[in-house]
Every structure is written in C-alpha cells, then in structure tokens.
Amino acid sequence: MQDSHGRIIDYLRVSLTDRCNLRCIYCMPEEGVPKKCHEEILRFEEVLKIINAHASLGIKKVRFTGGEPLILKGVDNLIYNTSKIPSIEDISITTNGILLYDMADDLKKAGLKRVNISLDTLKEDKYRQITRGGDIKKVLSAIEKCMSLGLLPVKLNVVAIKGVNDDETADFIRLTREMPISVRFIELMPIGEGAKLYEEGALGSEEIIESFPGLIPLEDLSGTAKLFKLENAKGTVGFISPLSCKFCNSCNKIRLTASGTIKPCLHSEDEIDIKSYVNDEALLTSVIRDAILSKPQEHHMETEHISRSQKMMYQIGG
User: Fold this and answer.
1) 26 marked ligand binding residue
2) CATH number of 11-152+248-316
3) Can you state the angle between helices 281-293 and 44-56, rounded to 10 degrees?
4) Residue 24 labelled as part of a binding site
5) What residues of the chain score a pLDDT lower than 50?
6) CA-CA distance, 92 to 62, in Å (whole number)?
7) Nearest in space to 156 (alpha carbons), one of 131, 139, 132
8) Residue-wise pLDDT tens digits, 104-157
9) 166-199 burial code (b ≥16 CB/10 A, e <16)
10) Domain edges within the chain
11) Is 163 assigned to a binding site?
C-alpha cells in the first residue's frame, strides 16, 4: 500500500520484547529495564493477527527485533506461522547473536531467510565493555554457523562511535574480502541512551568511506544502505546514514512495538495503540491503514539533533 507521500510500504519491523541479555552502552541502561506484566506485551497469537492484517495491506517483508528476540520461547514457531502467510516473501531477524548458535538450525527450518547480527567490535575485551559483559566468542561462532546454513548474506550491524570503535572500521571492511557477509556501519543516533554519547561520539559515514580507499560503490535502490565492495571481495560494505544522508523519501517501513503500538516513523512521537483491535480483523486492518497513511514525510534530526520519539531504542526495535 502507498502512504500519503506516495511511498510503497511493504516492510514491517516487529519488536517482540524490550528486554535484552546485554546492556549495550548506546541502547540499554546499565541497570536494565523495568519488567512489564504479561498483559502489557503482545502475545505471539496477537502478533500473528497483526502481521496478517499488515499482509492484507501489502506488507511482504517482516523482521523480528527486540530488545533481543531470541530470549523468548517459541520464536521459531512464530517464524514458522509467519512463513505460512501467503504474501509474506521474506522473514529476517535482528539479534545480538549470543543465543543464535544453538537456535540457528531450528530458525532456518522454521522459515528464517536472513539474520542481522549486532557486532560493534572485533576485540574480546572491548566487546565486554560495550555490551557490559557479553562474550564475543558466542557471536563469532553464530556467524560461522549462519554462513554454513546458508543464511546469506549474514549482515553485521556496526554502530560507529568516535572514541569507541572508530579504530576498527578498516578491520570490519577487510572481513568482507573472504567472507560472504555484509558489514553495515550505522550512524549513532541521538535517541535514548545514544543521545548521551552523540555529541562526542557521532561519526558520519563519509568519514569512514574517505578513510578507506578502494571501496567501489554499488548500484542498489532496494534498501536504506549505501553499498560498496572491495575488488573481488565476497561480501559488501554498507552505510546507513539517517542523519548525514537521510533516506526518508524511500522509507518503506512501519513498526510494531512489543506493547502493541504502531510507530509510522522511528523518530516520530506519534504512536497508534492497536492492541484493543486485535480481535476485530476489519477494524484492526482499518486502523493500520490509517497508521500507514499518517506516516510523516521525514524526520528532523539533522536540524534538531534529537529524536522526537517518546520511546527508547530498545522499545522500538530500530
């Protein structure tokens, strides 16, 4: 379906939980988040009804996010049931990778097509610092496992932060020479915990591109990342630049939060509560249609330097 600005909205991002087994410095408070009651969070049966309603309006791609979606029991069954919706063509997941190694086989069998793994450093000690206690060995093993299963390309999401991991950008780019992965550098955004780091830590995509000669630009109009590759490399390098080169005019996403609200735009304060409509298919579809039509034309972070969202990043799913 088209929104009011003529964009085709065919991609739904579903945040299944705001909880996580890590505490990344730009995302999650060190003390974690208050635990919500079961009644405050969508059940998987409700999530499926909402995905079905979106599918009837033209959604073809679904990505499950969190928090960390793999901490929830039954995610593989949710993926399987989503894969049975005829119009859904692509199912993916964003994860920190800590639990992925043991779950990858079942997720692939259930219908998962692709994985995005958050990995902001290749150094064991720095990984523990950034995530406040994570074990990078588990993530690296999961990457190898996903490649062996054919969940390709494995995408690595790297939030680039000055003074934290800017000294490793070349190391990440070199990974793509021999591995069929897509390294995606994501600009730090002034939202939630990231706002505390933004003034000193913001690193523009162009700074990384200019620091590594030999990146060959690729033509790709299908996504939000500006793609490059090294000569004869097996993988690619992408840059997601919501501030320095915002892509609002081609945004095809709408978001569902774990608490049952639709966010037409990641950085808008607007949310539409649809939880009470879940058992009325016609009304649910109508409210979602209105939410898509209300999607704003663009965000204003490049001038305001702060997200208007009332939610933290872990509550939205990125």
Assistant:
1) yes
2) 3.20.20.70
3) 60
4) yes
5) 302, 304-305, 307
6) 6
7) 139
8) 999 999 999 999 999 999 999 999 999 999 999 999 999 999 999 999 989 999
9) eebbeebbebbeebebbbbbbbbbbbbbbbebbe
10) 11-152+248-316
11) no
